[in-house]
Structures are given as C-alpha cells and as structure tokens.
Amino acid sequence: MPPSLETLWLVPALPLLAASLGALTPRGGRRFSAGVAIAAMAGALLLSCLALRAALLDPSAHLVHNFRWFDLGNGAVELGWLLDPLSALMCVMVSLVGLLIFIFSLGYMCEDENFTRFFCFMSLFAAAMLGVVIANSLLLLFISWELVGLASYLLIGFWFHKPAAAAAAKKAFITTRIGDLGLLLGLVWLYDSTGSLLLYDGGNGVLEAGVLGNLGTMALAGGLAVPTAISLLIFCGAAGKSGQFPLHVWLPDAMEGPTPVSALIHAATMVAAGVFLIARVFPLISYDQALAADPLHALTVVAAIGAVTALLGAAIATAQSDLKRVLAFSTISQLGYMMLALGVGSWVAAIFHLLTHAFFKALLFLAAGSVIHAAHHEQDIRRLGGLGRTMRTTYATFAVGMMALSGVPFLFSGFWSKEAVLHAASEWAVSQLPLYAGLVGVVLTAFYMTRLLCEVFWGPARSPEAAHARENTGVITVPLVILAIGSVGLGFLGTPAWPWLESALTGRPVAPRSLLEGGGLMALSIVLVAAGLGAGWALYGRKVRVSADAKDPFSAAAPRLFGFLGARMRLDELYAATLGRLNTLGAALADFMDRWVWGGAVGFLALLGEFTGSVNSEVDESGLNAGFNSASERIRGAGRAYSGAQSGDAQGYLRTVAVAFVVLALLVLLGGGR
Amino acid sequence: MSPLQLCLAFSSLLFAVGLTGALARSNSILVLLGLELMLTAGSVNFIAFWRFGPPASPATGVVFAIFAIAVAAAETAVGLALVIAVYRHQRNIRLPEANRLKG
Amino acid sequence: MRLLATTDSSLLERAPVLLRDALSGLLPPPARWTANALIEIVAILAVFGTLFAFLTLAERKILGRVQNRPGPNRTGWFGLLQPFADGIKMLTKEDIVPHAADPVLHYLAPVALIAFSLLTFSVIPYGRDLLAVRMDASVLFFFAAGSATELSVFMAGWSSHNKYSLFAAMRALAQLISYELPLLLSVVPVVLAAGTISTAGVVAAQSGWKWGLVPHWHVFTPWGAAGFAIFMVSALAESNRSPFDLPEAESELIAGHLTEYSGFKYALFFMAEYFGMCALSGMAVTLFLGGWQAPLPALEFVPSYAWFALKLLALIAGFMWVRATLPRLRIDQLTRLAWKFLVPLALINLGTAAFWSLTYPWGGSLQLLRWAVALALVMGPFLLLGRRLSAGLGARTYRYA
Amino acid sequence: MNTVLVILALATLGTAAVAMSLRNLLHSVLLLTATWAGVAAFYLWAGAEFVAFAQLLVYVGAISMAVLFAVLLTRHSRDDVAAPPAARSRGVYAAAAGAAVAGVLLAAVSLAPLATAPARAPAVSVRQLGGELMGAHAASLLAVAVLLTVALVGAVVLAAGGPPEKPGDTP
C-alpha cells in the first residue's frame, strides 16, 4: 500500500481535529483557533498534493483501502477510502481553495465576536467535504454528505440573530433533505440488490463490471430498469445539493451567510458535491445506456435538468440587484452547465468546468466580499459604484474573474472549460437542445457579468458607504490575486491542444485535437460572448447609472420581463401557491367535512333522538325511569371500581405484573410447557 | 440435583427476594435495589446457561452478562437521579406518596 | 507462580523461587501447592510490612529535611528504630469505641480496608518469575479490589457518629468516585496498546529496545506519557495523599474519618494508606515504566526484582516530595480538576492511543508525521483545558513579602 | 463442587433477604454490597473471571457508592436513614407475590428438561471476548454505548433539575 494511500484518511482527519480543538477553545482564543484551522488545511493541502502525485503514477488504477466497520447479523458494514486522479484532484482543489478562503476570513471576520466558532464550523465543513471526496463506500460518502449539509446549515445560520439568516438556513437544510431522502432510498435499494456499498472492491464494488452486470439483468421496476431507477434516486440527492432546477430555491437565500461561507460552500465546494457524486458513480449512472429494453436513460434526465437549470439561472441573474444574489444565480447556471456535460456523457468536461469554476467563482465571491467589507456591508449594486478607482486590486481581480466566467476567449480558464462542455454537447447523439440552451446561456452570462462590473466599479459612488470604501489589507487581497492567477492558468490543463486533464482523469492517453476541428462551434461561442459583452456595455457601460434610484435600463426596455426575472420567475411564490396551498386546502376540506357533513349527520341524528325522545317521554315517565336510573348507577359504580385500579401506586402495578406472570407461567406449566 | 438446576434455583430465589423487597418496602431507594437484585438474578442465569448449557459460541453468555451489567448500571444511575428529583418535589422519598398521576 | 524458574536467567534472578521450592520441598508433594501459596503470602506480607515501617520513617525524615528540621533522630542511629517504637506505642494503646458509634461497622471498616488493599498485591509482577497469581484479567482485578477500599473509608466515617467523620465520609465518596474515572480511563490506552489485560502480558508487551537504546516502555510514547501523568495524579487522589488528602484534612476536620480511631485500628488505617500507595505505584511501574525490565540491555544482569524495587521507590519518593511541596486543594477545585480536566484529557488520550496503534505500520518519514499528530493530540487539549481550568487563577503577587 | 455452590448461594440469599428487611438503610446497602460480592464469587466459581471482576468493579465500586450518596443526599437528620419497616398489609401481599413467583420458577426449573453439565467450563480468554464484542456483537455494543451515554446525560439533567429561570431568557 503506497504511503500516500495510507495517509489519505488524514486529509479529512486533520480539519476534523482542528474543528474539535476549536470547539474546545474558549472565545478568547481567536488566534489559536484560526491558527489551528489554517495549519490543518495547509497540512491537508500538502497531503493531497502527495496523494495527487501518487495517483498520477498510474492514473487508470483505483487504489482503495477498505475495512470492516462492524458485522450486522451475517452481513458486514464496510467503509473505505479511494485514491484515484478524480479524488486526488478534488482533494487538492478543496483544500487549496479552502486554505485561501480561511486566510481571507481572517480579515473578513476579524470584528466578529464568534470568530472561534466560525473557524470551528469552517473546519468541520472542510473535513466533511474532504470525506465526501475520498469516500470509497457510498455509506461513508452519505455520512460525510449529511455532515456537509449540517455544516452548511450552521454556517448559513451563523448570524442566527438575523431572522432572514435563520429562515435561510432552515430552507437550505430542508430543501437539500428532500433530495437526500432520494439519495438514501437509492443507497438502500442498491445495497439491497447488490449487497455492498463499496465503489471499488477488487471486482465486487458496485461500480465494477460484474456487479453492474447482475444489476442490469434484474427485472424492470415500474417500467424502469433497476440501474436507471437507482441512478435517478441518486441524482435526486445530487440535484438537491447542487441546486438543480426544481430544488434550486435554497441557494440564493443561502447568501445570508457570511461571504467567505458563500465562497467556500455555495460556490466552490459543496454545491459541486452533487456534480462530483454523479461523476463518481458515472459507471453506474451511464450503465443503463447499454440496456435496450429501457424506455428512458438516467443521463437524459440529467442533461435535461442541467440545460433547464443553466438557462434559468442565467436568465434570473440578469435582473437581480443584490451583488451576491447575482453571483448565486450565476453559480446555479454554471452548475447547470456541469450537469449538462455529465448528461451528455462527458464527465471529464464536467470536472474540468467544476475545477475552473471553483477558482473563478470563489474569486468573484471573495472580491465581492472585499467590496462588501470595504463598503460597510452594502450589497445593493444600485447603491455601490465607482469602486474601480478606490479599490484597484479588487477591481482588477474581479475583472479577471468576470472575464473567466463569461468566457472571454483563449486567455481565461472559463473559456476552455465552457468550450469543452459545449463541444461535448454538440457531439451528443440524442438531441441538440442542450447545446442551444448552453449557447443562449453564454450570451446571458456575458451580459449579466458586464452589468455587474459596470454597476459596481464604474461611474460615480452612489452612496456614502461606496464613497468611503477603501482597498482592504493584504490578508484579503493576496488570496484574490492567487485565485486570479489560478483562474487564468488553470484553463491550459484542458485545452484541446494539450488535453492533460482528460488523459489524467481517464488514464488513457488522449490525442490532442487541433483547434480547427469544432472550430466553428468555438467561433460561434466567441461571437456570442462578444454579443453578450456588447449588449451589456450598450445598456450599462455606455452611460453609467448616476443615482441609486435611477431606473434600470433593462427594466426600462422590458419592464414586464425584468419584473418577472427580478422576482426569480416567481418560483418561490409558485411553490408556496402549490405545495403550501395544498396543505391549506386539505385543512379547509377537513374543516368543511367536520362542520357540515359529519356535523350535519350528527345533528340530524340528534334531532331524530329528540323526536323519538319526546314521543317516548310519556312511556319513560310512566315505568322505565327507575330501571334506567339503577342501571346508570351500576355503570357509574363499575367506572369507580375500575378507576380504583389506576391508583398511581407503582408497587401496586408491580404486584399486578407479578400476579399476571404467575398466572401465565402456571398456564404454560400446566399446559405441558408448550 | 444437577449443578445447572442448582444455579437456576439460586437465581430464581434471588429474583423472588428482590421482588419481595421491591414490593414490601416503601423507601424508593430500597425498591430500586430490589430491582437491581432482580437484574442480577437475570445475569446469573446468563452465566449459568453459558457454563452448563450447550453454548452457542464460547463467549455468548459472558457477553450478555456484561451487557446486562452495563444496562443495570445505567438503570441505577437514572433511577437514583429520579429519586433525587422526587425528593426535590416532595420532601421525602416514600414511593406510595408519589402518586400525583393517579386517575 | 511458575514452579520452575527459567534456566537461562542468573542464579540471583532465580534465588527467591529456588528458596521457596527448597522450603516447600521438605513437605510431601500433595501439600506443596498450599505451602507455596502460604510462602508467597508470607513473603509479600513481610516485604511490604517492613517497607511500610521504614516508609513512615523515610517520609518523616524527608518532610523534615524539606522543612529544614532533622526529623526523628533519637531512637537508634538516625532514628532507625523509630518505626518499632511507634509500633509498640500503637499496639499498647487503648482501643476506644465511642458510645454512640455503630459498633459493627466501626470494627469492620479497618479490617475490610486492610484486606482489600492487601488483595491488590497479588497481581503485581515483582520480577521475571515473581507473580503471586497469574490470571487473565488481573488488571481488572486490581482495580476491582482497589475500588472496594472506598467503601471502608465511608464505613469508618459513617460509623463513628461524629460530624467531622461524616463530612470526611462524604468528601471521600465524592473524591473517590470522581478520581476512579480518570484512573481507569488512563489505563485503557495501555490495554489497547498491549492487547491484553494481564499484568504479565502488559510487561511483556514493553520488552525490547529501539536501536538497542530506548526501551519500549509506554511512558516513552506521547499517549503513554500523558496517561502516566493522569494515572499518577489520580493515584495521589485515590490514596488520599496530599494535596488531595481532604478526607483527613487535619486543619478543617480534626482527622476526618480517623477521628474516632485509636490504637491498632488507627495503625491499620495508616498501614492501608501506605499499602495503597505502594500498590498504585507498583501498578504504575507495571503499566507505564516497563515493570521489572531493565532500562538498558547492558544492565540486564541486575536481577529483575531489583529494577522493580528501584522504580517503585522512585515513585514513592515522588509521592513524598509532592506531599512536602503542594498545599491542599479545596473540595470544589478537587472535583473541577477531575471532571473538567482529567476526564476529558483521558478520553482524548484514548483517541490518541487508538491513532497510535492504527498507524503502527507507518515507517520512514511517516513516523515524523505520526509523532507530530500524536503530540498535537496530547498537547493541544492539555493547553486548552488547562487555560480554561486556570482561568482567573493568576499567580498571586505578594507586594510586601 | 455443588457444596461450594450451595454455600455461596445460601450466603448470597441470606444477605439479600436480611438487607431487604433491615430498618437501617445504610446497613441494607452495605449488606447488598456483600450480596453482589457473593454473586461475583458465583461467577468466579462458574469460571467467568472477567464478568466477576466487572461485577465487583461496577456494583461494589460504583453502584454502591452512588446509592450511598443518594441515601445521604435524601434525608433530613442523621436518624432519617431508618426507613420504616413494611406496613403489615403490604408485607403480606409482597411475601405472597414473592413466594408465588419463587414457587412457579422453582417448579419450572425442576420440570424443565435441562442439558447435563459438560465436564469443564468453556474456556474463554479476554482476547476472545473482545473479539466477539467487536465482531458479532458490535452493533449491540454500539447500542449499549449510546444507552450509557444517554443515561448519563439524562441522569445529570434529572438530578440537576433544570436551569434556574432567568427573566428575559425566553426568546
């Protein structure tokens, strides 16, 4: 067993240790807790770099270390961790971005009184996320998955004294739980039908050919092949975590948390966990394409959901006025791109986009955090502005991130990863719709990012906070610069000319493609990006907003559409109207039934009784009364007798039990013992 | 009488003594101790069957006895806490007087 | 005990066993087993009886030296005969039983105490061949017998119908319950590492040297050092030694649970306290300091029981030094130290030991990582909890001193 | 070997019976400690070393301590440990119930077709025991661990009796 595989479990263990130490730290020990957390992340980064080196020696191998947790009856519950290029790359990404964000938080959270608690939670989150990444057993993955959810709940609600934050935390937790229920069902079903939850287990893992073969031969379940059904259930969990279309509503609200949290959890790592999960179980989820008898492939659903999400998120982002919400919706749409790539069968492109997106989106969020920190927590882009002159470093890095996200050609990583996604989509045999959705998304992305840049950094300062904003200290700007370098340089890992990433991930040498093949598509997307940038500049850059309450040009152009998008397509209202309304309706129905149907019947019976009573009263008066009275007396007496047994005397009860036991035992004995 | 029967007789008498005490005394600590005796009788049975009966596996009876001891410890802890809580409400620990919930 | 001494070891090493076999050899074979047992019992009683006698002297001398006075020096050279004088005095004093006392318990308490504290001597391996009772669960037996001594302290305090004694009984209960926990929890890692709970097995697990230089004693591992410290502190409290001698705090409760005892019963209590100290120190030596094993390969020619005696006496000297140095704690400080400091540390230490044995196969550069993580696991909580424990208890500055 | 067993059993039962009928609460608790020690001796006789020591450690070392503590905590004066003996009617009921249960159990024991004793105790080393605990019974071990934790916390909460009410503490 290579040493870096032996030590792989330390990668999540170190942040976990830091979290427990932070939990022990009294409030005063700010420097200690932060120091421990950052040291632990640095150690994790070091170990994961070693692991990556070891994994790249033989990219096609899956080095696993499994062990038995405990026996359950005659089955065994097994856990384990896995070292392959995918997990190693994710480890490096998570710990690197996490480290930078921890350092950033030193500056950002410096005046918060719960500094130590913040770092404790952050370390807990990092530990759980790394656990998800290295897990070789779906059970371990699920445990860490839930821990991730818990940590995100704690961090979104970090300022729980704000009602909005508390509500957002609850919303995020519950919404993701809906997805996780599906995931849990899928895991149970998988364990039931394969008897194992290990991913790779020397031929017995659920991702290996033999087990998949058995899975494929199973009977259809409700018109679906068993692998398809399980994959769809697993995808529910992924969709919930990475904010895919039906379950995306929690992500924008999650922006109530501190900005480093938004950067780490809701841009770089946790929301990517869903994508990672699908990429991890890709052999399982794509297996059903071999089955002819199958009406619907799981990947088709994934692609459809991804396309819808990409388009919807980008569209909504064009009309938000809160700095962080724009970024949140752009995150949703980018995650949609990744799911789209997975759905069309190129998980390498998805992971590539995941990595680059982690960098430039974390960069954007941190830059936004720097702006917010400087502008005394002013997040409304209409009241910002003019910061380009006062905060040059933030401005430059934000511009880099913006260009990377909107896919400005050739220099920026976002361009290459997005090209990979679109290229994969264009090669999908089933349908071209995802490609078109992606292309439209490209335009929208360029548009809203330009809008954001112009509104925040150009023109005059439109509020005293913005006017007083000054550049932040190095502890905040240095991570920005590093991330900016990353989000430029990372792109060259996956250019068609030098497909290092693909060969590393798949373990197969991949022949470099010339830029010309598929160049048409590239040219088209370049044109679209230019169009988006131009439109944004035309609307927002040419003549910059002068005052906070000036009308937004877009809404001036199309007020109805702008309002619709600004209200997030009224999806929250829709949910309230359908699901919430359903409850109310049911209650109202029950109420009606009670009040009128049953009540009416009872009333009718009562009337009947009264009538018969009045008829019979004569008879009663004459003879029956005495009998009835005595009877009711007896009944009351019996009631008293019984209530006497309920004496509240514990020993009396014990005595009764003893007597009953004796009686039963006698019955058994005299009955011959059987 | 075979040793196994002797052991079982021993445990059943122990159980009966515990039951009698738990029923007769009014002091709730003594009642608790009577229950403890009954539990002990149970684990005596485990050991007796492990020693003389055909064992399922060489350690099963011992394992169950250990579990029984652990559970008994937990039971005592909670029981004594309850006794102290009762004492806080009614300034004594006489069980027959603790019957506020009678019907 | 092994009937045949190992032949490879030296004559001096085998001397006790040979002596015993020679003595019991005079008897007919069927009686030999009993004779051996009796001889061993007598040997243990004799050795520790004398040890007790001279430990009292040593303690008084050491305290005297620390407090800058000669200590007992009249009877015999350097007061060497002092213990016998004390013994004669104790035996000839009248044995007083208070009128209102509970006579049965008052009589039973010292007897039970001495009996149980003697039981604990039966499972300590004093040398390569010197172990009275070989059993599988001897560590458990040691602590089971030791925990029974707490009862007799309570009996003494309760039965003598004296409010100071009663206070002492309550204090003793609180203290002993509180410190039983860290004591046991600090032993669990050793059991975990050694993979056995028989004292002989634990000693065997610590045999050997790393690079022929550093012995494989548990105290030389991070968790072992921490466990040793926790064990010794808890042992101080369990044997009612200063600074944890609240049950017999002479300045607050006249003599605590010993107030109403006189003459030989008092002597028994006194003896039991020293026996407890010896037994716990012996257990500490067995669990953490490699038992009877020599510190260096070159020194193995010295008989093993000599090494054991050396380590034992060193620990006891430590006990006395502590008594001469530290002031007595207050009862709330006592319980807080146990529940808020020692118990969490012991629990975390268990995790550290688990990590240590989990990463046993690691070699080469990973060893450094292993040590770093283990040390962090030991030191971090210690610093944190210590800071929290001593919050607001800064060092007092005497302005006019 | 039966004589040893009979002596043990008689001693244990005798201490238990006397403890259950004594006036002085403390005397009964101490006598019960003797009873538990007797049971531990029985375990030793049966060859279950580990259980015997565990019994000693838990019952004699811990439970009796806790019970004594509870006795001392729940009394007004020193003579309050004299618990009144059973009222006659209760005593009679209790004796009857106990006798009935004992009779039934003894009858069952004497009637049941029981396996004959093997020559010697099944030898189980502590290592074997640990193996079984961690292997076949690991799930129940986890359950017991959870139970103990919950019991500890619950006991502390019950005995501590809730936090002192502060005004304005309610959100």
State the gist of this model.
The complex is a heterotetramer of chains A (674), B (103), C (401) and D (171). Chain A is mainly alpha-helical and 674 residues long. Chain A is built from 28 helices and 2 strands.
The helicity of chain D comes to over 70%
Largest interface: B-D, 74 and 86 residues
Class of secondary structure makeup of chain C: mainly alpha
Strand order of the largest sheet of chain C: 1-2
Calculate the terminal CA-CA distance of chain C, rounded to whole Å: 60 Å
Extract low-pLDDT stretches of chain D: none
Share of β-strand residues of chain D: under 5%
Q: Which overall shape of chain C is indicated by the principal axes computed on the Cα atoms? A: globular
Residue-averaged pLDDT of chain C: 83
Summarize the amount of helix of chain C as a percent range.
Answer: 55-70%
What string, H for helix and E for strand, traces the elements of chain C in order?
HHHHHHHEEHHHHH
Largest sheet of chain C: 2 strands, antiparallel
Radius of gyration of chain C: 23 Å
Beta percentage of chain C is under 5%
Query: What's the number of extended β-strand segments of chain C?
Result: 2
Number of helices of chain C: 12
Mean pLDDT of chain D, rounded to whole units?
80
Distance between the termini of chain D: 69 Å
Which value, in Å, is the CA radius of gyration of chain D? Answer: 22 Å
Outline the secondary-structure elements.
The complex is a heterotetramer of chains A (674), B (103), C (401) and D (171).
Chain A: H1 3-6, H2 10-24, H3 30-57, E1 63-72, E2 75-83, H4 85-108, H5 115-134, H6 138-156, H7 163-194, H8 209-216, H9 226-241, H10 250-253, H11 259-268, H12 270-280, H13 282-285, H14 298-317, H15 323-343, H16 347-374, H17 387-390, H18 392-406, H19 413-426, H20 433-457, H21 464-468, H22 474-489, H23 500-506, H24 519-541, H25 553-557, H26 559-566, H27 571-645, H28 650-670
Antiparallel strand pairs in A: 1-2
Helix pairs in contact in A: 2-3, 2-5, 3-4, 3-5, 4-5, 4-11, 4-16, 4-22, 5-6, 6-7, 7-9, 9-12, 11-16, 12-15, 12-16, 14-15, 14-20, 15-16, 15-19, 15-20, 16-18, 16-19, 16-22, 18-20, 18-22, 19-20, 20-24
Chain B: H1 3-24, H2 28-52, H3 60-89
Helix pairs in contact in B: 1-2, 2-3
Chain C: H1 11-25, H2 32-66, H3 82-92, H4 103-119, H5 138-159, H6 163-194, H7 199-205, E1 209-210, E2 214-215, H8 222-238, H9 263-288, H10 304-325, H11 331-358, H12 365-389
Antiparallel strand pairs in C: 1-2
